[in-house]
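Data card: per-record layout.
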Amino acid sequence: MIDVPGRLRRLGATYESRWLALYVAARLAATAFAAVLLAWERGSGPQELLLVYGLISTGLLAWLPALRRMPAAWAVDIGVLVVCILLSGDWRSPFYLLWLSTLALPATTLPLRSAAWLAAAAPLMFLLVAFVGGPQPGIQVRSAENLAIHLALPFLLVASLAYAANALRRLSKERVERERLAIEGERRRIAWELHDSAKQRIHAAHLLVSSLQGQVPGRLERTIGRAVVELESAASDMDTSLAELRSPLEGRPLADALRERAAELAPGGRPAITVHGTAPQLEPLVVAHLYRIGSEAITNALRHADATAIDVAIENGGGRLRLRVTDDGRGLPDERRSGATGLFAMESRAATIGALLHVGAGPDGRGTVIELEVPINENGGSQ
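The structure for this 383-residue chain is written out next.
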C-alpha cells in the first residue's frame, strides 16, 4: 500500500528544494545587479554596506529551513529592503530587484488565497515608498510609466509564483492519488485471481489428498500425510498473501478502523463497544491481521457471549503491540464447539504474524478476554 502522506512529503521536499535554488539564484543576481548599479552611479558609504545584508540574509535563509518558513522572517526581510530603498533616496533604487526577491518565499509557501492578498498588497506598499522615497516629494508625472512598471512587477511576480506553486501542490496530490488507485486496483485484481483460482485449486487438492488418508498402503501413508501438511501450509501462505493484498484498512489507523467496525456491528451504540489506544505505523500485512483478529473477537462476543459491554484496548510499548478485547458475556464454554472457526482463524492469523494469542476468562472470572501480543520492529513489521 502506498504511503500517501509520506509520498506527498517527499514530493513537497523536492519542490521546496527547487524553489529554494531559484530563490537563492534570484537573490544573488539581484545583489550583484545592485552592486553594479551602485558602482556605475559611484555610490558609496551606507549604500554599499547595505549590499552585505543581501548576502548575509540569503545565506541565513538558505541554510536555516525553520527561518525561511517563518512569516516573521519574511516581514523583517521585506521591511529591511524597504528601508534600504528609502535610504537610497530614490524609489528607482538599485535595491528594488533585491526587494522583489524577498516576495518569492511567501509567494511559494503561502496558500493561494493568502498569496493573492500579498500580490495585491506588494504594489500598494511600493506605491507608498515611491511617494515618500524621493527623489522629490510626491510622484512626478514624467515618471508615471516607470512607476507603473515598478508597481506591476511585484504583482506579476507574486501572482505567477503563487499560481505555479499551487498548481504543483495540486498536481502532486493528483499524482499520488493516481498511483494509489493504480496500485490498489492491481492488488485487488491479483487478490481476486488468487482467491478464485489458485486458492480454490489448493483446497480441492487438499480434499482429494485428505480423502486418501487411511485408505492407502502403510508405506504411502506417511507420504500422504506429508502432502496434506504441505497443502495446509500452502493454503495458509495463500491466506497471508490475500490478507496483504486486500488490506481492509485502506490506510486508516487501526483504532479508527475498529471503531467503524464496532459501529457497524452495534448500531445505535448497543451494546456499548469502546476502542481506545493507538497503534504505530505498521506493515499492511501486520495491521490487516490485527484488524481481522479484533473484528472477529468483537463478533464472537456479540454473537456467542451475549455481551452488553465490550472494551477494545490497543497498547504499544517495549517493542510490543498488545490488542486486548474484553467483554462481560457468559464466558468461554467448557469445550470448544465443533465447527467453531472463529478462534481457529484468530490463532492462524496470530501465528502468521508471529504473535501470541491468549484466550481466557475476564476479571473475576466473568466474561472473556482475548489478548494478542505481537513483537514489532522499528519498521512496523512483526519480528
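Known properties of this structure: Strands lie at 272-276, 309-317, 320-327, 356-361, 368-375. The chain has three domains: 4-175, 186-245, 254-375.

See the next section for split statistics.
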